Amino acid sequence: MSGDSQVKAELFIENPAELPSVAQTLKEKGYDHVISLSAVDYPKSNEIHLVVHVSSYTKKDIEPKIFEIRVKLNRDNPRVPSLVKIWPSAEFQEREAYEMFGIVFENHPDLRNILLDPEEFSGVHPLRKDYIVQVEDIMLKLKEEVKSGGNK
Amino acid sequence: MEAISDIGGGISARKVDDKTMILFFGPQHPSSGHMRIILKLDGDVIIESDPDIGYVHRTMEKLSETKEWIKNSVLFERLAILDAGNVTQAYIIALEKLLGIEPPERALYLRTILSEINRISSHLYGMGIFAIMLGSSTGYMWFFGDREIMVQLAERITGSRLTHTYHIPGGVRRDVSKSFFEELEKGLNYIEKRLRHYEIMFVNNPVVRSRIENVGILSRERAIDLGVTGPNARASGIDFDVRVEEPYGAYSFVDFEVPVYKEGDALARTFQRMDEIRQSISILRQLSKSIPEGPILNEKYLKLFTPAMKEVLEKDKRIKFPAIFTSLKPPSGKAYGRVEEGRGEIFFYLESNGEPKPYRVRVVTPSFRNSILLKYLPVGYRLADLPAIYGSIDYFPPEADR
Protein backbone atom coordinates (compact mmCIF):
# COMPACT_ATOMS: atom_id res chain seq x y z
CA MET A 1 0.00 0.00 0.00
CA SER A 2 2.64 2.46 1.01
CA GLY A 3 3.89 3.35 -2.43
CA ASP A 4 7.12 5.03 -3.19
CA SER A 5 6.62 8.75 -3.49
CA GLN A 6 8.53 8.74 -6.77
CA VAL A 7 8.56 6.47 -9.78
CA LYS A 8 11.60 4.38 -9.04
CA ALA A 9 13.14 3.47 -12.33
CA GLU A 10 13.88 6.07 -14.86
CA LEU A 11 15.91 5.73 -17.96
CA PHE A 12 16.71 8.97 -19.66
CA ILE A 13 17.67 8.79 -23.33
CA GLU A 14 19.30 11.81 -24.91
CA ASN A 15 19.49 10.43 -28.43
CA PRO A 16 16.10 9.28 -29.80
CA ALA A 17 17.80 6.87 -32.22
CA GLU A 18 18.81 4.70 -29.25
CA LEU A 19 15.21 4.07 -28.22
CA PRO A 20 14.54 0.89 -30.28
CA SER A 21 17.58 -0.97 -28.96
CA VAL A 22 16.74 0.04 -25.37
CA ALA A 23 13.15 -1.10 -25.92
CA GLN A 24 14.30 -4.41 -27.37
CA THR A 25 16.50 -5.06 -24.32
CA LEU A 26 13.62 -4.25 -21.99
CA LYS A 27 11.28 -6.53 -23.92
CA GLU A 28 13.75 -9.40 -23.63
CA LYS A 29 13.90 -8.72 -19.88
CA GLY A 30 10.14 -9.32 -19.70
CA TYR A 31 8.52 -5.91 -20.14
CA ASP A 32 5.94 -7.08 -22.64
CA HIS A 33 3.37 -4.31 -22.93
CA VAL A 34 3.01 -0.55 -22.89
CA ILE A 35 0.75 0.94 -20.25
CA SER A 36 1.15 4.54 -21.25
CA LEU A 37 2.95 6.37 -24.01
CA SER A 38 2.72 10.12 -23.98
CA ALA A 39 4.82 13.23 -23.59
CA VAL A 40 5.47 16.27 -21.44
CA ASP A 41 6.14 19.66 -22.99
CA TYR A 42 8.92 21.89 -21.62
CA PRO A 43 8.84 25.05 -23.73
CA LYS A 44 11.43 26.86 -21.58
CA SER A 45 14.20 24.45 -22.53
CA ASN A 46 12.64 23.85 -25.97
CA GLU A 47 12.24 20.15 -25.23
CA ILE A 48 9.51 17.59 -25.38
CA HIS A 49 10.01 14.42 -23.35
CA LEU A 50 8.46 11.26 -24.65
CA VAL A 51 7.40 9.29 -21.56
CA VAL A 52 6.80 5.56 -21.92
CA HIS A 53 5.60 3.32 -19.09
CA VAL A 54 6.00 -0.40 -19.71
CA SER A 55 5.09 -3.36 -17.56
CA SER A 56 4.95 -7.14 -17.63
CA TYR A 57 2.17 -9.70 -17.77
CA THR A 58 4.45 -12.70 -18.04
CA LYS A 59 7.08 -12.03 -15.36
CA LYS A 60 5.53 -11.74 -11.95
CA ASP A 61 8.70 -10.92 -10.01
CA ILE A 62 9.90 -8.15 -12.30
CA GLU A 63 11.25 -5.07 -10.52
CA PRO A 64 10.23 -2.34 -10.86
CA LYS A 65 6.67 -3.27 -11.81
CA ILE A 66 6.40 -0.24 -14.05
CA PHE A 67 9.47 0.89 -15.93
CA GLU A 68 9.63 4.45 -17.15
CA ILE A 69 11.58 5.52 -20.21
CA ARG A 70 12.07 9.17 -21.06
CA VAL A 71 13.36 10.36 -24.39
CA LYS A 72 14.49 13.92 -24.95
CA LEU A 73 13.15 15.33 -28.22
CA ASN A 74 13.73 18.60 -30.00
CA ARG A 75 10.58 20.67 -29.63
CA ASP A 76 10.90 22.23 -33.08
CA ASN A 77 10.99 18.90 -34.87
CA PRO A 78 10.21 16.02 -32.53
CA ARG A 79 10.97 12.75 -34.27
CA VAL A 80 11.51 9.33 -32.77
CA PRO A 81 11.50 5.75 -34.13
CA SER A 82 8.17 4.00 -33.63
CA LEU A 83 7.90 1.27 -31.01
CA VAL A 84 5.00 -0.56 -32.66
CA LYS A 85 7.22 -3.37 -34.04
CA ILE A 86 8.60 -4.08 -30.57
CA TRP A 87 5.47 -3.32 -28.56
CA PRO A 88 2.31 -3.54 -30.75
CA SER A 89 0.38 -2.15 -27.76
CA ALA A 90 1.93 1.26 -28.51
CA GLU A 91 0.07 1.70 -31.79
CA PHE A 92 -2.90 3.81 -30.71
CA GLN A 93 -0.99 5.68 -28.04
CA GLU A 94 1.66 6.77 -30.55
CA ARG A 95 -1.14 8.10 -32.72
CA GLU A 96 -2.38 10.06 -29.71
CA ALA A 97 1.06 11.50 -28.95
CA TYR A 98 1.33 12.42 -32.64
CA GLU A 99 -1.85 14.49 -32.65
CA MET A 100 -1.48 15.94 -29.14
CA PHE A 101 2.24 16.89 -29.29
CA GLY A 102 3.14 16.64 -32.97
CA ILE A 103 5.69 13.91 -32.35
CA VAL A 104 6.45 12.04 -35.58
CA PHE A 105 6.95 8.32 -35.05
CA GLU A 106 9.14 7.04 -37.86
CA ASN A 107 7.95 3.80 -39.47
CA HIS A 108 4.64 3.79 -37.65
CA PRO A 109 2.28 1.66 -39.78
CA ASP A 110 -0.65 4.09 -39.65
CA LEU A 111 0.31 7.49 -38.25
CA ARG A 112 -2.76 9.74 -38.23
CA ASN A 113 -5.07 11.40 -35.72
CA ILE A 114 -7.03 9.13 -33.42
CA LEU A 115 -9.16 11.33 -31.13
CA LEU A 116 -9.12 14.74 -32.79
CA ASP A 117 -10.70 15.83 -36.05
CA PRO A 118 -7.83 15.84 -38.60
CA GLU A 119 -9.15 18.94 -40.40
CA GLU A 120 -9.71 21.16 -37.39
CA PHE A 121 -6.49 20.08 -35.67
CA SER A 122 -4.13 19.91 -38.60
CA GLY A 123 -0.77 21.29 -37.47
CA VAL A 124 -2.15 22.18 -34.03
CA HIS A 125 -1.11 20.21 -30.98
CA PRO A 126 -3.40 20.85 -28.02
CA LEU A 127 -1.33 19.29 -25.23
CA ARG A 128 1.61 21.59 -25.92
CA LYS A 129 1.84 24.34 -23.35
CA ASP A 130 1.54 27.15 -25.91
CA TYR A 131 -1.85 25.91 -27.11
CA ILE A 132 -4.43 28.14 -25.44
CA VAL A 133 -7.93 26.79 -25.23
CA GLN A 134 -10.40 29.19 -26.79
CA VAL A 135 -12.99 30.10 -24.19
CA GLU A 136 -16.47 30.53 -25.58
CA ASP A 137 -18.11 32.82 -23.10
CA ILE A 138 -21.73 32.59 -24.12
CA MET A 139 -23.09 34.71 -21.28
CA LEU A 140 -20.65 37.53 -22.00
CA LYS A 141 -21.58 37.54 -25.68
CA LEU A 142 -25.25 37.77 -24.81
CA LYS A 143 -24.57 40.81 -22.63
CA GLU A 144 -22.70 42.54 -25.43
CA GLU A 145 -25.50 41.77 -27.82
CA VAL A 146 -27.99 43.31 -25.43
CA LYS A 147 -25.82 46.43 -25.20
CA SER A 148 -25.53 46.79 -28.94
CA GLY A 149 -29.25 46.47 -29.46
CA GLY A 150 -29.73 42.71 -29.52
CA ASN A 151 -29.32 40.13 -32.19
CA LYS A 152 -30.00 40.96 -35.78
CA MET B 1 -14.37 6.25 -54.66
CA GLU B 2 -18.11 6.36 -55.21
CA ALA B 3 -20.40 8.58 -53.23
CA ILE B 4 -21.83 7.36 -50.00
CA SER B 5 -25.29 5.91 -50.42
CA ASP B 6 -27.85 5.41 -47.72
CA ILE B 7 -28.83 1.77 -47.51
CA GLY B 8 -31.46 2.23 -44.85
CA GLY B 9 -31.50 2.21 -41.09
CA GLY B 10 -29.06 5.11 -41.00
CA ILE B 11 -26.27 2.86 -42.24
CA SER B 12 -24.23 4.14 -45.14
CA ALA B 13 -21.90 2.13 -47.31
CA ARG B 14 -19.68 2.65 -50.29
CA LYS B 15 -18.63 0.18 -52.89
CA VAL B 16 -14.91 -0.34 -53.46
CA ASP B 17 -15.10 -2.92 -56.22
CA ASP B 18 -17.48 -5.76 -57.08
CA LYS B 19 -16.31 -7.81 -54.13
CA THR B 20 -15.44 -5.29 -51.43
CA MET B 21 -17.56 -2.75 -49.65
CA ILE B 22 -16.81 -0.16 -46.96
CA LEU B 23 -19.40 0.01 -44.23
CA PHE B 24 -19.71 2.75 -41.63
CA PHE B 25 -20.85 1.19 -38.39
CA GLY B 26 -21.89 4.10 -36.16
CA PRO B 27 -21.26 6.76 -34.85
CA GLN B 28 -24.87 6.96 -33.73
CA HIS B 29 -24.57 3.81 -31.75
CA PRO B 30 -27.79 2.62 -30.17
CA SER B 31 -26.33 1.32 -26.95
CA SER B 32 -22.87 2.28 -25.77
CA GLY B 33 -22.06 5.87 -26.72
CA HIS B 34 -20.63 7.49 -29.78
CA MET B 35 -17.94 5.82 -31.81
CA ARG B 36 -17.83 4.23 -35.20
CA ILE B 37 -16.05 1.41 -36.88
CA ILE B 38 -15.19 1.66 -40.56
CA LEU B 39 -15.34 -1.85 -41.93
CA LYS B 40 -14.11 -3.31 -45.18
CA LEU B 41 -16.32 -6.25 -46.09
CA ASP B 42 -15.95 -9.07 -48.55
CA GLY B 43 -19.52 -10.30 -48.74
CA ASP B 44 -20.34 -10.24 -45.06
CA VAL B 45 -16.86 -11.17 -43.88
CA ILE B 46 -14.87 -8.39 -42.21
CA ILE B 47 -11.48 -8.02 -43.89
CA GLU B 48 -10.45 -4.74 -42.31
CA SER B 49 -11.67 -2.86 -39.29
CA ASP B 50 -10.75 0.71 -38.42
CA PRO B 51 -12.19 2.01 -35.17
CA ASP B 52 -12.81 5.75 -35.41
CA ILE B 53 -12.90 6.95 -31.83
CA GLY B 54 -12.81 10.39 -30.24
CA TYR B 55 -16.44 11.46 -30.63
CA VAL B 56 -16.69 11.98 -26.88
CA HIS B 57 -13.19 13.34 -26.29
CA ARG B 58 -13.47 15.91 -23.50
CA THR B 59 -9.85 17.17 -23.38
CA MET B 60 -9.45 15.92 -19.83
CA GLU B 61 -5.65 15.97 -19.78
CA LYS B 62 -5.56 19.57 -21.05
CA LEU B 63 -8.42 20.67 -18.83
CA SER B 64 -6.74 19.25 -15.73
CA GLU B 65 -3.83 21.69 -16.19
CA THR B 66 -6.26 24.56 -15.61
CA LYS B 67 -7.77 23.27 -12.36
CA GLU B 68 -6.52 22.92 -8.79
CA TRP B 69 -5.39 19.43 -7.72
CA ILE B 70 -8.46 18.71 -5.62
CA LYS B 71 -10.88 19.95 -8.27
CA ASN B 72 -9.42 17.50 -10.74
CA SER B 73 -10.83 14.57 -8.82
CA VAL B 74 -14.27 15.90 -9.73
CA LEU B 75 -13.17 16.16 -13.35
CA PHE B 76 -11.66 12.71 -13.68
CA GLU B 77 -14.50 10.78 -12.12
CA ARG B 78 -16.48 11.79 -15.18
CA LEU B 79 -14.30 9.45 -17.23
CA ALA B 80 -16.61 6.61 -16.33
CA ILE B 81 -19.37 7.73 -14.05
CA LEU B 82 -20.59 4.19 -13.44
CA ASP B 83 -17.17 3.29 -12.04
CA ALA B 84 -16.34 6.69 -10.55
CA GLY B 85 -15.00 5.40 -7.23
CA ASN B 86 -12.25 3.38 -8.89
CA VAL B 87 -11.26 6.18 -11.24
CA THR B 88 -10.93 8.79 -8.50
CA GLN B 89 -9.08 6.34 -6.32
CA ALA B 90 -6.29 5.97 -8.87
CA TYR B 91 -5.91 9.74 -9.14
CA ILE B 92 -5.98 10.22 -5.37
CA ILE B 93 -3.44 7.42 -4.80
CA ALA B 94 -1.02 9.19 -7.15
CA LEU B 95 -1.73 12.53 -5.49
CA GLU B 96 -1.17 11.03 -2.03
CA LYS B 97 2.22 9.75 -3.17
CA LEU B 98 3.13 13.30 -4.19
CA LEU B 99 1.87 14.72 -0.90
CA GLY B 100 3.42 11.93 1.15
CA ILE B 101 0.25 11.20 3.06
CA GLU B 102 -1.58 7.97 3.81
CA PRO B 103 -5.18 7.29 4.74
CA PRO B 104 -6.02 5.54 8.03
CA GLU B 105 -7.14 1.91 7.98
CA ARG B 106 -10.88 2.50 8.19
CA ALA B 107 -10.68 4.81 5.18
CA LEU B 108 -8.85 2.12 3.23
CA TYR B 109 -11.63 -0.35 4.02
CA LEU B 110 -14.32 2.13 3.00
CA ARG B 111 -12.51 2.85 -0.26
CA THR B 112 -12.29 -0.82 -1.08
CA ILE B 113 -15.96 -1.39 -0.24
CA LEU B 114 -16.88 1.35 -2.71
CA SER B 115 -14.46 -0.09 -5.28
CA GLU B 116 -16.08 -3.49 -5.19
CA ILE B 117 -19.62 -2.09 -5.26
CA ASN B 118 -18.53 -0.10 -8.31
CA ARG B 119 -17.02 -3.19 -9.89
CA ILE B 120 -20.25 -5.16 -9.58
CA SER B 121 -22.27 -2.30 -11.01
CA SER B 122 -19.78 -1.76 -13.83
CA HIS B 123 -19.94 -5.44 -14.78
CA LEU B 124 -23.74 -5.44 -14.66
CA TYR B 125 -23.80 -2.34 -16.85
CA GLY B 126 -21.39 -3.92 -19.33
CA MET B 127 -23.42 -7.10 -19.51
CA GLY B 128 -26.63 -5.12 -19.94
CA ILE B 129 -25.16 -3.28 -22.94
CA PHE B 130 -23.86 -6.58 -24.25
CA ALA B 131 -27.33 -8.14 -23.92
CA ILE B 132 -29.06 -5.37 -25.85
CA MET B 133 -26.43 -5.59 -28.58
CA LEU B 134 -27.31 -9.25 -28.94
CA GLY B 135 -31.01 -8.40 -28.99
CA SER B 136 -31.72 -9.90 -25.57
CA SER B 137 -33.94 -7.20 -24.08
CA THR B 138 -34.71 -9.31 -21.04
CA GLY B 139 -31.00 -9.48 -20.22
CA TYR B 140 -30.72 -5.74 -20.66
CA MET B 141 -33.63 -5.04 -18.29
CA TRP B 142 -32.41 -7.54 -15.70
CA PHE B 143 -28.82 -6.34 -15.59
CA PHE B 144 -29.79 -2.68 -15.51
CA GLY B 145 -32.54 -3.24 -12.98
CA ASP B 146 -30.25 -5.18 -10.64
CA ARG B 147 -27.46 -2.67 -11.06
CA GLU B 148 -29.75 -0.17 -9.35
CA ILE B 149 -29.17 -2.00 -6.04
CA MET B 150 -25.43 -1.45 -6.30
CA VAL B 151 -25.95 2.18 -7.30
CA GLN B 152 -28.13 2.74 -4.26
CA LEU B 153 -25.62 1.08 -1.96
CA ALA B 154 -22.95 3.41 -3.34
CA GLU B 155 -25.32 6.29 -2.67
CA ARG B 156 -25.68 5.14 0.94
CA ILE B 157 -21.91 5.38 1.41
CA THR B 158 -21.11 8.51 -0.55
CA GLY B 159 -24.33 10.50 -0.81
CA SER B 160 -24.48 10.39 -4.58
CA ARG B 161 -25.45 7.72 -7.05
CA LEU B 162 -22.74 8.00 -9.67
CA THR B 163 -20.22 10.79 -9.34
CA HIS B 164 -19.29 10.03 -5.76
CA THR B 165 -16.27 12.34 -5.18
CA TYR B 166 -15.66 10.13 -2.19
CA HIS B 167 -11.88 9.97 -2.07
CA ILE B 168 -9.87 12.87 -0.72
CA PRO B 169 -6.14 12.97 -0.07
CA GLY B 170 -5.55 11.19 3.23
CA GLY B 171 -8.96 9.59 3.58
CA VAL B 172 -12.57 9.56 2.54
CA ARG B 173 -15.31 12.15 2.72
CA ARG B 174 -17.96 10.29 4.70
CA ASP B 175 -18.28 7.48 7.19
CA VAL B 176 -21.01 4.84 7.10
CA SER B 177 -23.48 3.84 9.77
CA LYS B 178 -23.78 0.31 11.18
CA SER B 179 -27.10 -0.25 9.42
CA PHE B 180 -25.33 0.12 6.07
CA PHE B 181 -23.71 -3.29 6.46
CA GLU B 182 -27.10 -4.95 6.94
CA GLU B 183 -28.33 -3.38 3.72
CA LEU B 184 -25.13 -4.36 1.95
CA GLU B 185 -25.61 -7.99 2.98
CA LYS B 186 -29.20 -7.92 1.70
CA GLY B 187 -28.07 -6.55 -1.64
CA LEU B 188 -25.27 -9.09 -1.95
CA ASN B 189 -27.61 -11.98 -1.18
CA TYR B 190 -29.91 -10.79 -3.92
CA ILE B 191 -27.16 -10.42 -6.54
CA GLU B 192 -25.77 -13.84 -5.58
CA LYS B 193 -29.15 -15.42 -6.21
CA ARG B 194 -29.58 -13.53 -9.45
CA LEU B 195 -26.21 -14.72 -10.83
CA ARG B 196 -27.73 -18.18 -11.19
CA HIS B 197 -30.70 -16.70 -13.03
CA TYR B 198 -28.42 -14.80 -15.42
CA GLU B 199 -26.65 -18.00 -16.27
CA ILE B 200 -29.88 -19.84 -17.07
CA MET B 201 -31.67 -17.04 -18.83
CA PHE B 202 -28.86 -15.15 -20.54
CA VAL B 203 -25.52 -16.92 -20.92
CA ASN B 204 -26.84 -20.44 -21.43
CA ASN B 205 -29.80 -19.34 -23.46
CA PRO B 206 -29.20 -21.28 -26.74
CA VAL B 207 -29.77 -18.17 -28.87
CA VAL B 208 -27.26 -16.07 -26.93
CA ARG B 209 -24.77 -18.86 -26.45
CA SER B 210 -24.62 -19.77 -30.15
CA ARG B 211 -23.82 -16.15 -30.92
CA ILE B 212 -20.98 -15.75 -28.43
CA GLU B 213 -19.30 -19.16 -28.19
CA ASN B 214 -16.10 -19.36 -30.28
CA VAL B 215 -16.65 -15.79 -31.47
CA GLY B 216 -13.97 -13.12 -31.17
CA ILE B 217 -11.24 -15.45 -29.95
CA LEU B 218 -8.27 -13.61 -28.48
CA SER B 219 -5.21 -15.76 -27.85
CA ARG B 220 -2.99 -15.19 -24.84
CA GLU B 221 0.03 -14.13 -26.92
CA ARG B 222 -2.04 -11.64 -28.88
CA ALA B 223 -3.60 -10.23 -25.72
CA ILE B 224 -0.11 -9.62 -24.29
CA ASP B 225 1.14 -8.06 -27.52
CA LEU B 226 -1.81 -5.72 -27.76
CA GLY B 227 -1.56 -4.82 -24.07
CA VAL B 228 -5.18 -5.75 -23.43
CA THR B 229 -6.23 -5.21 -19.84
CA GLY B 230 -8.74 -6.29 -17.21
CA PRO B 231 -11.36 -9.02 -17.57
CA ASN B 232 -10.62 -9.23 -21.32
CA ALA B 233 -7.00 -10.14 -20.61
CA ARG B 234 -7.93 -12.60 -17.86
CA ALA B 235 -10.48 -14.31 -20.11
CA SER B 236 -7.54 -14.95 -22.47
CA GLY B 237 -5.43 -16.66 -19.83
CA ILE B 238 -3.42 -13.72 -18.48
CA ASP B 239 -3.30 -14.05 -14.72
CA PHE B 240 -2.91 -10.38 -13.90
CA ASP B 241 -4.84 -8.15 -11.56
CA VAL B 242 -3.54 -4.87 -10.12
CA ARG B 243 -5.33 -5.68 -6.87
CA VAL B 244 -2.87 -8.58 -6.44
CA GLU B 245 0.23 -7.24 -8.21
CA GLU B 246 0.34 -3.87 -6.48
CA PRO B 247 -2.23 -4.04 -3.66
CA TYR B 248 -3.86 -0.78 -2.64
CA GLY B 249 -6.79 0.01 -0.35
CA ALA B 250 -7.68 -2.96 1.86
CA TYR B 251 -6.97 -5.71 -0.66
CA SER B 252 -4.03 -7.02 1.32
CA PHE B 253 -6.40 -7.72 4.25
CA VAL B 254 -8.76 -10.02 2.31
CA ASP B 255 -8.59 -13.39 0.57
CA PHE B 256 -9.82 -13.60 -2.98
CA GLU B 257 -9.17 -15.44 -6.19
CA VAL B 258 -8.52 -13.96 -9.59
CA PRO B 259 -10.64 -15.95 -12.04
CA VAL B 260 -8.90 -16.80 -15.32
CA TYR B 261 -10.25 -18.44 -18.47
CA LYS B 262 -8.24 -20.00 -21.27
CA GLU B 263 -10.70 -19.81 -24.16
CA GLY B 264 -10.54 -16.08 -24.89
CA ASP B 265 -13.87 -15.94 -26.73
CA ALA B 266 -16.91 -13.75 -26.08
CA LEU B 267 -18.42 -16.49 -23.90
CA ALA B 268 -15.31 -16.69 -21.71
CA ARG B 269 -15.37 -12.91 -21.30
CA THR B 270 -18.97 -13.13 -20.13
CA PHE B 271 -18.26 -15.91 -17.62
CA GLN B 272 -15.21 -13.95 -16.52
CA ARG B 273 -17.34 -10.98 -15.49
CA MET B 274 -19.83 -13.17 -13.66
CA ASP B 275 -17.03 -14.91 -11.74
CA GLU B 276 -15.54 -11.56 -10.84
CA ILE B 277 -18.88 -10.48 -9.41
CA ARG B 278 -18.82 -13.61 -7.21
CA GLN B 279 -15.35 -12.69 -5.97
CA SER B 280 -16.46 -9.10 -5.31
CA ILE B 281 -19.35 -10.39 -3.20
CA SER B 282 -16.93 -12.47 -1.15
CA ILE B 283 -14.53 -9.52 -0.73
CA LEU B 284 -17.37 -7.24 0.39
CA ARG B 285 -18.53 -9.79 3.00
CA GLN B 286 -15.02 -10.12 4.41
CA LEU B 287 -14.58 -6.35 4.54
CA SER B 288 -17.87 -5.67 6.27
CA LYS B 289 -16.99 -8.26 8.95
CA SER B 290 -13.50 -6.96 9.64
CA ILE B 291 -13.77 -3.19 9.13
CA PRO B 292 -12.00 -1.47 12.06
CA GLU B 293 -13.28 1.55 13.96
CA GLY B 294 -11.27 4.73 13.76
CA PRO B 295 -10.80 8.03 11.98
CA ILE B 296 -11.53 8.37 8.26
CA LEU B 297 -8.94 11.06 7.57
CA ASN B 298 -5.24 11.26 8.26
CA GLU B 299 -4.43 12.77 11.68
CA LYS B 300 -2.26 15.41 10.07
CA TYR B 301 -5.28 16.90 8.32
CA LEU B 302 -7.63 16.33 11.26
CA LYS B 303 -5.43 18.64 13.31
CA LEU B 304 -6.31 21.49 10.96
CA PHE B 305 -10.03 21.16 11.71
CA THR B 306 -11.84 24.08 13.31
CA PRO B 307 -14.29 23.32 16.16
CA ALA B 308 -17.21 23.70 13.70
CA MET B 309 -15.70 21.14 11.35
CA LYS B 310 -15.07 18.78 14.24
CA GLU B 311 -18.70 19.07 15.23
CA VAL B 312 -19.89 18.19 11.71
CA LEU B 313 -17.57 15.20 11.68
CA GLU B 314 -18.79 14.10 15.09
CA LYS B 315 -22.48 14.56 14.38
CA ASP B 316 -22.91 13.78 10.66
CA LYS B 317 -19.82 11.63 10.19
CA ARG B 318 -18.74 13.68 7.21
CA ILE B 319 -15.73 15.82 6.42
CA LYS B 320 -15.97 19.53 5.86
CA PHE B 321 -12.92 20.41 3.81
CA PRO B 322 -10.15 22.30 5.56
CA ALA B 323 -9.34 25.42 3.52
CA ILE B 324 -5.87 24.08 2.75
CA PHE B 325 -7.41 21.52 0.38
CA THR B 326 -8.28 24.17 -2.18
CA SER B 327 -4.69 25.30 -2.50
CA LEU B 328 -2.78 22.06 -2.17
CA LYS B 329 0.74 22.44 -3.47
CA PRO B 330 2.38 19.05 -3.80
CA PRO B 331 6.18 19.30 -3.90
CA SER B 332 7.81 19.09 -7.32
CA GLY B 333 7.99 15.55 -8.55
CA LYS B 334 6.09 12.83 -10.25
CA ALA B 335 4.04 9.88 -9.19
CA TYR B 336 1.84 7.26 -10.67
CA GLY B 337 -1.32 5.59 -9.44
CA ARG B 338 -2.85 2.43 -10.80
CA VAL B 339 -6.11 0.76 -9.86
CA GLU B 340 -8.01 -2.24 -11.14
CA GLU B 341 -11.20 -0.70 -12.42
CA GLY B 342 -14.17 -2.83 -13.49
CA ARG B 343 -12.90 -2.81 -17.07
CA GLY B 344 -9.21 -3.15 -16.28
CA GLU B 345 -6.24 -1.12 -15.21
CA ILE B 346 -6.51 2.65 -15.00
CA PHE B 347 -3.20 4.49 -14.85
CA PHE B 348 -2.50 8.06 -13.77
CA TYR B 349 0.85 9.75 -14.14
CA LEU B 350 1.13 13.10 -12.39
CA GLU B 351 3.84 15.70 -12.68
CA SER B 352 3.96 18.59 -10.23
CA ASN B 353 6.15 21.68 -10.29
CA GLY B 354 5.01 22.83 -6.87
CA GLU B 355 2.14 24.92 -8.16
CA PRO B 356 -1.51 24.71 -7.06
CA LYS B 357 -2.30 23.18 -10.47
CA PRO B 358 -0.75 20.09 -12.06
CA TYR B 359 1.96 20.55 -14.68
CA ARG B 360 0.90 17.42 -16.50
CA VAL B 361 -1.60 14.65 -15.90
CA ARG B 362 -1.52 11.57 -18.08
CA VAL B 363 -4.41 9.17 -17.77
CA VAL B 364 -4.74 5.87 -19.61
CA THR B 365 -8.06 4.14 -19.19
CA PRO B 366 -8.79 0.45 -19.71
CA SER B 367 -11.22 1.19 -22.53
CA PHE B 368 -8.55 3.14 -24.40
CA ARG B 369 -6.09 0.29 -24.04
CA ASN B 370 -8.74 -2.20 -25.14
CA SER B 371 -9.86 -0.08 -28.10
CA ILE B 372 -7.03 -1.62 -30.15
CA LEU B 373 -9.06 -4.84 -30.03
CA LEU B 374 -11.68 -3.23 -32.24
CA LYS B 375 -9.07 -3.03 -34.96
CA TYR B 376 -7.69 -6.56 -34.73
CA LEU B 377 -10.36 -8.77 -33.19
CA PRO B 378 -13.27 -8.52 -35.69
CA VAL B 379 -11.13 -9.34 -38.76
CA GLY B 380 -12.17 -12.68 -40.25
CA TYR B 381 -15.55 -12.79 -38.54
CA ARG B 382 -18.91 -12.02 -40.09
CA LEU B 383 -20.61 -8.68 -39.80
CA ALA B 384 -23.30 -10.28 -37.64
CA ASP B 385 -20.59 -11.25 -35.12
CA LEU B 386 -19.48 -7.66 -34.66
CA PRO B 387 -22.06 -6.72 -31.99
CA ALA B 388 -21.09 -9.85 -30.05
CA ILE B 389 -17.39 -8.99 -30.24
CA TYR B 390 -17.88 -5.30 -29.54
CA GLY B 391 -20.28 -5.97 -26.66
CA SER B 392 -18.14 -8.68 -25.09
CA ILE B 393 -15.08 -6.44 -24.63
CA ASP B 394 -17.15 -4.00 -22.54
CA TYR B 395 -15.85 -0.98 -24.41
CA PHE B 396 -17.07 2.35 -23.02
CA PRO B 397 -16.42 5.29 -25.40
CA PRO B 398 -16.49 8.17 -22.88
CA GLU B 399 -13.86 6.37 -20.84
CA ALA B 400 -11.70 5.62 -23.87
CA ASP B 401 -11.85 9.12 -25.36
CA ARG B 402 -11.24 10.95 -22.07
Automatic annotation (TrEMBL), chain A:
Q: Which residues form the signal peptide?
A: none
Asked if tRNA processing is a keyword of the record, the answer is no
GO MF entries: NADH dehydrogenase (ubiquinone) activity; oxidoreductase activity, acting on NAD(P)H
Superkingdom, according to UniProt?
Archaea
Carries keyword Transport?
yes
NADH:ubiquinone oxidoreductase 30kDa subunit domain sequence ranges: 16-133
User: Which controlled-vocabulary keywords does the entry list?
Assistant: Transport
State the InterPro entries in the record: NADH_DH_suC (IPR010218), NADH_quin_OxRdtase_su_C/D-like (IPR037232), NADH_UbQ_OxRdtase_30kDa_su (IPR001268), NADH_UbQ_OxRdtase_CS (IPR020396)
Tell me the protein family, please.
Belongs to the complex I 30 kDa subunit family.
NCBIfam families, sorted: NuoC_fam
Q: What is this protein called?
A: NADH-quinone oxidoreductase subunit C
Organism source for this protein? Answer: Fervidicoccus fontis
